[in-house]
């Protein structure tokens, strides 16, 4: 056969594009058909709610099919203009009691409460883990809001965005706060279908299929889900202006009057519709998302969007000096507008998973901070590190439970006896991963006031009244065990080998 004829018969780029367009159209049509079938299996009374969620998923899926290539071209990242990040030190800090009440009257506090405690070896809702004085994340949050409401005679509502994983357990626990001066509202984020990676169709055969077939689509879902819950319109009607959104496991994310005043009582220029709290990056935060200037707007850049050959540059503390704390302040009116006009845009995070059955699926997710580019006049405020105290691991938990902090009305305050404000770097090994094991290995939490760095690896236990200072590294090799004796003072020490303390 004439090679020229073979060449002529191969599809041109135009044909490739047309073929791809047809394929995408078919995938979208097939998904739409499957979702329509699934809606018919909805429990009585839930059809319209499930349909609204599926509509959101269809829009996300359409974007997933259409948007190809990198979401950010590295060479197009521009230097942040000086006005993009406002120093927290420039904000007003003292207010009359009347002014504070007036500001709090216009605030809603929303906590992201969809996560489980699996990273800390717990099976249930993460916010119900005890973190200090037998109090849970949720207890501390309720205490903070009640203190505001009682002190300033106001009514700041506390809103929890649950997921289908946390809703039932959270609702049961909420009954115990019935007599407190806190108006607690809850709504569920969407329940989206996991998609078979090969067929691009939902794994679920009915709406009542087991939870393996469904997933909560990340905290970027907060905008549409709050809107769909009717709470957004309700708060606007009540005269509320801003919502403060944060992760419930960030114990530094308290309602900040200086930021609230900056938004409600502007000194000059237009008021930002969106404020992201950022803080200075340290070596412990190199993977955290950062703010960049891109196509004339502020944008959140996450490590997943960074080309592989640029990851080291992204992690550099000298080039990207700040990172996102996920403490966000958003205008309620603006949130309503971007949802209704469908101008809300967040980069899609494609999360591949393998189910227990061995089936490969994908989850389409979004991050709440990525919406920054959809709002007018958005800025970052560079806040002190004390506003970022997340508890993701038992290493974080050790810091929070120690004498580095004291507890006051549900808020953590750095111990004034700590001679420098930075938090020590703590790395506990795999033997400490689960909360249950962690608590067993410490007879009491050590004195850490003068600690800079702690690394613990292997089978290690701590007696009562241990004091850790400077840099302490404790390494128990495989098959060995180290028991740090009661009352031991370790200052700039490396402990290794085998040290057993036996009862007699």
The DSSP helix count reads 13
Low-confidence stretches: 1-13
The whole-angstrom Rg is: 25 Å
**In which order are the strands of the major sheet placed?**
1-17-11-14-10-2-5-6
Describe the structure.
With 504 residues, the chain is α/β, with parallel strands linked by helices. It contains 13 helices and 25 strands. A hairpin with a 5-residue loop joins β15 (349-354) and β16 (360-365). α8 crosses α11. The chain is globular. The N and C termini lie far apart (92 Å). The model is unreliable at 1-13 (pLDDT under 50).
Question: Which terms summarize this structure?
Answer:
13 helices; disordered N terminus; alpha/beta; 25 strands; 24% strand; eight-stranded mixed β-sheet
What topology does this entry show?
Elements (H helix, E strand, L loop, with lengths): L2 H7 L3 H27 L7 H20 L18 E3 L9 H8 L2 E7 L16 E3 L2 E2 H15 L6 E5 L4 H8 L9 E5 L3 E2 L1 E2 L17 E2 L6 H7 L2 H7 L4 E6 L9 H8 L9 E7 L9 E5 L2 E5 L9 H5 L6 E10 H9 L8 E6 L5 E6 L13 E4 L11 H8 L3 E4 L2 E4 L10 E4 L6 H7 L9 E7 L2 E3 L4 E9 L6 E3 L4 E8 L8
Parallel strand pairs: 1-17, 2-5, 2-10, 5-6, 11-17, 20-21, 21-23, 22-24, 23-25
Antiparallel strand pairs: 3-4, 7-9, 8-16, 10-14, 11-14, 12-13, 15-16, 18-19
Helix pairs in contact: 2-3, 8-11
């Amino acid at each position: 056969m004439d090679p020229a004829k073979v060449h002529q018969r191969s599809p041109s780029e135009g044909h490739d594009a047309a073929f791809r367009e047809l394929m995408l159209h078919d995938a979208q049509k097939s998904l739409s058909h499957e979702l329509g079938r699934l809606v018919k299996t909805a429990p009585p009374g839930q059809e319209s709610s499930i349909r609204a969620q599926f509509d959101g998923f269809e829009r996300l899926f359409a974007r997933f099919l259409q948007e190809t290539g990198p979401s950010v071209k590295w060479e197009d990242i521009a230097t942040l203009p000086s006005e993009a990040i406002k120093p927290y030190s420039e904000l007003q800090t003292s207010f009359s009691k009347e002014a504070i009440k007036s500001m709090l009257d216009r605030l809603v506090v929303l906590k992201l409460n969809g996560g489980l405690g699996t990273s800390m070896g717990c099976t249930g809702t993460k916010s119900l883990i005890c973190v200090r004085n037998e109090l849970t994340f949720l207890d501390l949050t309720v205490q903070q809001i009640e203190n505001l409401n009682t002190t300033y005679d106001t009514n700041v509502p506390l809103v929890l965005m649950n997921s289908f994983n946390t809703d039932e357990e959270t609702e049961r626990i909420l009954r115990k706060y019935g007599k407190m001066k806190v108006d607690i509202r809850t709504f569920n984020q969407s329940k989206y279908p996991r998609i078979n990676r090969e067929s691009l169709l939902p794994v679920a055969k009915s709406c009542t299929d087991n939870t393996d077939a469904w997933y909560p689509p990340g905290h970027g879902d907060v905008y549409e889900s709050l809107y769909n819950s009717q709470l957004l319109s309700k708060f606007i009607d009540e005269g509320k202006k801003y919502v403060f959104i944060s992760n419930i496991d960030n114990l530094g994310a308290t309602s900040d009057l200086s930021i609230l005043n900056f938004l409600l009582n502007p000194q000059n220029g237009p008021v930002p519709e969106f404020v992201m709290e950022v803080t200075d990056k340290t070596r412990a935060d190199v993977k955290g998302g950062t703010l960049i200037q891109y196509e004339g707007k502020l944008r959140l850049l996450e490590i997943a969007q960074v080309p592989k050959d640029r990851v080291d540059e992204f992690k550099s503390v000298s080039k990207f000096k700040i990172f996102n704390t996920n403490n966000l302040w958003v205008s309620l009116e603006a949130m309503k507008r971007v949802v209704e006009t469908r101008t809300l845009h967040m980069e899609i995070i494609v999360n591949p998973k393998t189910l227990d059955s061995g089936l490969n699926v994908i989850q389409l997710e979004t991050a709440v901070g990525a919406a920054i580019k959809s709002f007018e006049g958005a800025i970052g405020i560079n806040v002190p590190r004390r506003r970022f105290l997340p508890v993701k691991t038992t290493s974080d938990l050790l810091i929070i439970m120690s004498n580095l902090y004291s507890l006051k009305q549900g808020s953590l305050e750095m111990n004034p006896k700590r001679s420098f404000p930075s938090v020590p770097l703590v790395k506990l090994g795999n033997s400490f991963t689960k909360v249950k094991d962690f608590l067993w290995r410490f007879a009491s939490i050590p004195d850490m006031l003068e600690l800079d760095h702690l690394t613990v690896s292997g089978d290690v236990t701590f007696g009562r009244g241990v004091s850790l200072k400077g840099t302490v590294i404790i390494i128990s090799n495989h098959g060995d065990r180290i028991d740090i004796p009661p009352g031991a003072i370790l200052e700039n020490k490396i402990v290794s080998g085998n040290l057993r303390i036996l009862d007699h």
